[in-house]
Amino acid sequence: MMMSKRLAWLMLGWLCLGLALLGALLPLLPTTVFLIAAAACFGTAAPHWEARLLAHPRFGPTLRNWREQGAISGRAKFFAGFGIALGLALFFARVQPGWLLGSAVALPMLGCAVYLLSRPRPRPVPGVHAEAAKPGRWGLLASLLVHGLLGAALLQQILAVATPAAAPVQPVLLQARLLPAAAPPQPVELRRAPEPSRARPQNEAPPRALKTLDAEVMPAPLPRPEAELLSVAAPSAELPLIAAAPATPAHSQASLAAAPPAPALPPAAQAGGLHSESWQARVLARLENFRSYPPGARARREQGVAHVQLRVDRQGRVLSARLQRSSGHGELDQAALATVRRAQPLPPIPADLPQELELLVPVEFFIS
Fold first, then answer.
1. CB proximity list for 156: less than 8 A, separation 6 or greater
2. What is the number of other CB atoms lying within 10 angstroms of the CB of residue 315?
3. For residue range 28-50, what is the model confidence (pLDDT) as tens digits?
4. What is the pLDDT of residues 293-349, one digit of tens each?
5. Model-level pTM greater than 0.70?
6. Does domain 277-365 have CATH number 3.30.1150.10?
7. Cα distance between residue 84 and residue 337, in whole Å
8. Are 161 and 153 contacting, i.e. CB atoms less than 8 angstroms apart?
9. HEC per residue, the chain
């Protein structure tokens, strides 16, 4: 039991000594406090280590003054207060903690500083050169420095809370559709209206009823013009068909006007706007050039739509690509992601758009 207790005190002494040495490099840790604690622990567990600390040329005088008089020199107070204040200022400036964490760190350090500054100065020993500093001067300077730096750190924290940081710019999500390749063009037959029949003169007598087929020879019908064929690239567009005009009855007395010309057909719609000048159209056109149907999936007749979400920067680099919705077939999903990898870099984002954009692209795989 005594051995384990002694070992615990020894380990605690080494820990305090390590923190004291670390405090000599990092201003947040009070070196003087940890040295006093290490000497106390070594005095209980290992007196020879305590003697070595008391005989140390740098740390020995401070420890002896504390051990014999419970006093701390002005120089030790100054460096301890300066280190604590500087450490707190750096902590609040770099970490910017909340009130809970800031209080948990600042209050113990402030307590150590107040305790050190409140200790008396060592009494001069006869035959030993007294300190040249005036009584209380180092302590006053250290106290002012501690309070000034701590007040500046707290003021910076208050200003940081009062002025919230601007929200980070989120990339704009655009939805674009990558359509499957267009089917082969199909010819569409457009019919012309037949030429109108000649009108009979008004003074001509109405024709007699035909008794037999041999009574009067019927005029031969005019030859019908050949139909014109027009190929349209987009099979999905509904094209208007011009129907033939109804035949005029033979017994009509009114003259017939010529049929109006057929209206011009609208231009065929491009598939998904691939030839548009917009940035999205250029991105889709590039993805379309690198898309390929996996042979294995085609052989198994696997079909589906894989939704891929891309994040693109100003230079067209793909920062991330993830599968948002699966097509139901793993090989098709991997082919959609491979399309993005092969196509990068994508066209650069225009200057009038944000720095980063997100595109949601449904990549379709269908067997026609």
1. 92, 93
2. 10
3. 566 777 778 888 888 777 788 87
4. 999 989 999 999 999 998 899 898 999 999 999 989 999 999 999 999 999 889 998
5. no
6. yes
7. 55
8. no
9. CHHHHHHHHHHHHHHHHHHHHHHCCCCCCCHHHHHHHHHHHHHHHCHHHHHHHHCCCCCHHHHHHHHHHCCCCHHHHHHHHHHHHHHHHHHHHHCCCCHHHHHHHHHHHHHHHHHHHHCCCCCCCCCCCCCCCCCCHHHHHHHHHHHHHHHHHHHHHHHHHHCCCCCCCCCEEEECCECCCCCCCEEEEECCCCCCCCCCCCCCCCCCCCCCCCCCCCCCCCCCCCCEEEEECCCCCCCCCCCCCCCCCCCCCCCCCCCCCCCCCCCCCCHHHCCCCCHHHHHHHHHHHCCCCCHHHHHCCCCEEEEEEEEECCCCCEEEEEEEECCCCHHHHHHHHHHHHHHCCCCCCCCCCCCCEEEEEEEEECCC
Phi, psi (rounded to 5 degrees) for 67: -70, -40
* Cα R_g (the chain), whole angstroms: 47
Residue whose structure tokens are 């655009």:
174
| Domain locations in the chain as residue ranges | 1-122, 277-365
Give CA angle at 315 (275, 324), nearest 5°: 75
Residue 365 pairs with which residues in a beta bridge? 304
> Which two three-digit tokens encode residue 368?
């026609």
| Tokens 């402030």 belong to residue | 110
